[in-house]
Amino acid sequence: MTNARIHWAHLARSLACMLVLVVLVAFANSVVRAGRIAFAAEREASPSVLIVDSNLGDYDRLMLTWLGERHDVVDANDGITLATATEPTWWATGGGEGEAPSTFVLSAAPGNSIDANDVAWALDAIADFGAEGRTFVIGAGTCGLRVREYAENLAATKQSDRANIAGLAFLGTPHNGYEAQATYPLLNHWKSLANASGFAGEDLLPESSFLNALNAKTFPAVSKSLVVLGNVGDLGFGVCDGAGTMEDLTLGASVTDQIVVTQATATVSCEVNLSGSWLPATSAIDYPGKSVDTNLASRLSAMQCYENSPEVLAQVVEFYQSWFSQGAPVTHNASVLALDLSGSMLEDDNDGMPKIDGAREATEQYLRVVKACSRLPHAAPTDVTVLGFEESVRKVCAGYDDDALAAVARTDARRLAETNIGQVLEEAVSNLAASPRCAKRHITLLSDGASTMGPSNEAMLNGVVSEARRNHIVIDTVGFGNAGESNASFLKEVSKATGGTYYQASNAYELKVDFLKSYYGSLGMELKDEEVRLDKEQVIALGKADERTSALQVGVVTDGSKVQVMLEHEGKPLDGSTLEVVEAAGLTSILCEAPEAGEYSIRLSGGSGQAHVFAVKELGIASRREVNGEQADFSFVMLAAVAVGLVACIVALVIITRRRS
C-alpha cells in the first residue's frame, strides 16, 4: 500500500509537471500572437472588408461565420443583399487583434446571381453607409471572378472611377477555369456553380474567351492579393477539392505580382454531393485511368464550404494585419498646386531673388518628384494640376511630363495684378470633385500676401474651405516671404480647418523643401524627412528594407550648391547601373526598385550650405510569396503534441503503478 501511495505521488508530480509545461506553451503562444503586427494607435482608417459569395444553400452559415447571429441588412437590390454587424465574428475566430474592421457580406437570394456591377453597388453602399470606402474584397468561388471583373475595369461600372480596391482575396476561385469540367463534361453540378454568379458553363472552361480576357488584364497597382488554395486528394486526374484543382485556383503573376499564396490543409470549394454527381459520370468504363475513388468522393461529399473554416479565416486575418496594419493604402492621388501670380510675386524674397523665380523652380521640382514617384512599381495613380491665380485663375498645366515642365517655365506673374484666393480655391475644389471617389485629394496653396479681391477671409472659411473639408480635401498652405506680409494667420486657419499643414518659406530653397514636404506627406508611404548641413561628408541612415519593401526613392534638395549623393547598402555603394538617377538644379532623385534586404543610407559629400533629405519606402510584395497553411499556427501543433505526450505519460504511469502494486 505504501509503494502504491509513492507511485501515485510520482504520478501526481508528473501530472503537475506536464500541466506546467502546457501552461508554458500556452504562454509562449500568447507571446507569439502578441508579437504579430498590431494596429497602431494613430493610423488612417483601416480598409473595410467585403465578402462576396453566391447562395448555394449556405447563406445562414456564411452569415454566422463572417458576421455572427446579430447582423443587419444595410441595403438590398433586386435579390442582392448587403449585410453588416457591429462585432463581426470572423475577426475573433481568425485570431485578429484589436478592433475588427468594418465588415460586410454581399450575397444573392436563391434564384439570383451576383455580377460585377453588384460588387460596385455594394462598395458604393459601404461608402454611403459611412465606412471606409477603400475596401479589402474577398471573393468566394466563382464570385471571385465577378470581383476580378470589377477590379480590372471590365464591368460597366469602372473601378478606376472610384479607386476603392485596397486589396483582394480569393477563396476557391477558378481563375483558370475548371479543368474537371473539360475532363468530365457530363457532371451535373457545373451548371449550378456557373449560375450562382450568372455565368454559362462554357465561361468556366479553361481558355474560354471570358477567362482569357480576364487574365489579360491587371489589378490596381496598390492592391495586395491573397489566394487560399484547397488540397484534399486526387479525384482521378489531379489534386482537386471537389470542383477545382490547385492549377485552376492559381492566380497568374501577369495579373499581379502583389500576391501571397496560402494553402488550406483539407478543404472543399463548395458543398456538393460528389457521390451522387461525380461517381455516375466518372466510371472506369467511361474514363479508363481517370475514374474517381468511391471512398474519396464519399468523404468529400460531407465537407462544408472551406471559406467558412477557422483555418482559412486565420489566414485571411493574418494577411489583413500584415498589409493594412497602418491603415488603408492610398489608392489614387489627386493634387492641385495653386501658385500666386499677383504683382507682389515679382518682388524679391529675403535672399534677393524674385519670388516668381523661386515659385517656378519649386514647382518644377515638385513635378519632377511626382514623376519619379509615379515610376515606383506599385505607386497609386497620380493626377496633378497646376493653377495660377491673381485677379483670375488660369490653368498652367496638367500632368508632369516635359510639356508640363515647359509650361511652368513660361509662367510669369502679372505686374500690378491683385490676389483672389477665393476663386482659385473654388476652382481647385471643383477640379478635385471629378477625381475618383476614394482618391486622396490634396491642394497646396502658395501665396505671398492677403487676398485683395473676391470673398473675405471669413466667407472663404465658411464657404469653399468648409466645402473642401466636407469632401475630404486636405489643403496645405505655404506663406512665401515675411510671415507678417504673407497672410499667415488666415493660411493657418485654412490648413487647420482641412487637416492640412501650414509652411512658411522665406526664400526659394525653403519653398522647394516645403513643396516637397507637402507632396510627400500626401502619399501615405513611410518617409524620411531630415534637414542637414553640407559642411562635411556625412552618412544619413534611411532605414531597413525587408521582403515587404518593393522600392526606395531618395530625393536630396540643396540651396544651389553641387553635392554628390551616393546610395549605400550595408555601408557599400550601390552600382549605379541598378538605379535610376535624375539630377536637376538643386535636386537629386534616386530610384531603387526591388532593393535587397538590409540597411540603407545615403552618403553626402561636397557642396556647402543646406540640404534636405527625403526618402520614401514603398511597401509591396516583391515576388510571389507562398505560405503553407499547415504551418500557420505552429504553437497549436506544439500544444497538440504536448497533449498527446501527456496522455501517453499518464497511461504509462498508470500501467507501471498497477504492475508494481
Quick take:
The chain has 661 residues and is of the alpha/beta class.
Structure description:
The chain is α/β, with parallel strands linked by helices. A nine-stranded mixed β-sheet has the order 2-3-4-1-5-6-7-10-26, with helices on both faces. A hairpin with a 3-residue loop joins strand 12 (382-389) and strand 13. The radius of gyration is 31 Å and the shape is elongated.
State the end-to-end distance.
7 Å
Helix content: 25-40%
Count of alpha/pi helices: 19
Mean pLDDT: 84
Structural class: alpha/beta
Major β-sheet profile? 9 strands, mixed
Number of strands: 26
Low-pLDDT segments: 1-6, 15-43, 627-644
Query: Measured on Cα atoms, how large is the radius of gyration?
Result: 31 Å
- Shape label: elongated
Share in β-strands:
15-25%
The order of strands across the largest sheet is 2-3-4-1-5-6-7-10-26
Spell out the blueprint of helices and strands.
Elements: H1 2-34, E1 48-53, H2 59-66, E2 72-77, E3 80-84, H3 89-93, E4 103-108, H4 116-129, E5 135-140, H5 143-151, E6 165-171, H6 179-183, H7 190-195, H8 209-215, E7 224-229, E8 233-234, E9 239-240, E10 259-263, H9 274-277, H10 294-301, H11 310-323, E11 333-340, H12 355-374, E12 382-389, E13 393-398, H13 402-410, H14 421-433, E14 440-447, H15 457-462, H16 464-470, E15 473-480, H17 488-498, E16 502-505, H18 508-521, E17 526-533, E18 538-545, E19 549-558, E20 564-569, E21 572-573, E22 580-584, E23 587-593, E24 598-605, E25 610-619, E26 625-627, H19 634-660
Parallel strand pairs: 1-4, 1-5, 5-6, 6-7, 7-10, 10-26, 11-12, 11-14, 14-15, 15-16
Antiparallel strand pairs: 2-3, 3-4, 8-9, 12-13, 17-25, 18-24, 19-23, 19-25, 20-21, 20-24, 22-23
